[in-house]
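Reviewer comment 2.1 asked that we show a complete input and output for one of the modelled complexes. We chose the zinc ion case, as it is the one discussed in the main text.
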Amino acid sequence: MSAYSFTVHTENHSQMIDITQQVRQAISESGVKSGIAVIFTSHTTAGITINENADPDVKRDLLYALEKAVPWENGYHHSEGNSAAHLKSSIVGCSQAVIINNGNAVLGTWQGIYFCEFDGPRTRTVFVKIVEG
Ligand code: ZN
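Response of the prediction step:
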């Protein structure tokens, strides 16, 4: 079993950043040919998701729909003032798992792995845990 981590610098308040290459690199460095990679972020106002990597409007629409569903101002109680970001984090989730086959992450042609920032800009950490099996 191997564990990797890398840093993501976000530039906007809400943003999706493609981290597929960093995950593929971690899998490659592990030498694991068959198994599972868990991609996890240790933040309460961010998320990890898998979605389309071709049309950038998909990212825009996803962030737009989350903003519509969870407005920044909505009479929340959390005194830090970023409840919407916490809610989006729980909706999206803070981890994903991908299958490793022949030393590569199994992803569809149009799938990418995304770090989702909901309260940026910040410096964030993503962990990749690889389990052989
Ligand atoms: Zn908070």
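The first helix runs from residue 20 to 30. We note this here for comparison with the apo prediction described in Section 3.2.
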